[in-house]
Request: fold
Amino acid sequence: MFFVFLYPLILMKHAELIATLALPKLPNIGCATARKLIHHFGSAEEVFAQVPRTNNKKWKSIARVFPQAKAMLSEAENEVAFIEKNHVNWIAHSDSNFPASLNLCPDAPLVLFYSGQPFPNTTRIVSIVGTRQPSAEGRAFVRQLVKELTPYQPIIVSGFAYGIDIEAQLAAQQNGLITYGCLGHGILKCYPSKHIKHRSEIEKTGGFLTEFWANEPFQRTHFLQRNRIIAGLAQATIVVESKAKGGALTTAQYALGYQRDVFAVPGKPQDVASQGCLTLIKNRQGECITCGADVARMLGWQQYKSPPSQPKLFVELNEKEKKVVRHMSATPKHIDLIALEAALKVSEVASILFQLEMKGIVMAQAGKQFKTI
Reply:
């Protein structure tokens, strides 16, 4: 094996982690290309073993960066030693407990470092983001929104930043909801430092996630990069207040690219902090919401009526209904998984499933699961 030759002192259980940390940091690789390489070669170790000596034209351009691999692998080895010494928690993309919705994103991190509790295996997750300089009305709306969502028990994800982010996470905590902050720096750092007083309480039931190595300092470019994690973890992203340009809109664009729902809170046309939300609504990129009930309804968080006792024969289905049914069977499946497999928004699938129930094609089960009749 390549690693035995290069690093004979490395225990093999660490070798794949070292390779996985190093691969996306090579020039012009990144997480999306790294994921493609791992999928093709089977593991990060095999990528390092095979790509440098491949004759396949497909990988020739990538192979040119591998002369720098030794230095990056050495850095990754040091990082693994550091996180072990300091008991830093991590989870790799190949682990069954890696957040499933995030793992479906083509450019998702290969390794997440975390503090607090492991991320729960659930799909009822919403991200709440917005400006760092919200109005008093914006802050009040976030608190009310989270309170109204509390009966549905979603996980609240945000960026732990000033403004709307921290307001949403503290509101979640105050209402007994689990919340996770996605960081733009290493897990052992805290930015803004003012928020460190909130970390231990949040970590009792939720926690913090980052793709950056344990002691990496914050950089402004990191925050745009971490926004894809905020969007990728969530079933839907809610933008409360945003200027015409800002990080919250970047998060919304990532969510749209991942085929996730985006909700925007309208504001006064003349308000600077409302321009981003209004643009999302005008461009039909974000559904307009004014309360928590809107979110629950659009995501299908409601009880469905019982279907007819006998299915109708020769029922006419439209193309989207057929698409949804193709991803179902007599075995119950969660609505979020159906939506992900059908590459449709959850809100859209909720509406389609309701119509299919009325037509006697599918049946609702406990826990937002559905099966064909």
Observations:
- The chain has three domains: 2-85, 116-298, 319-372.
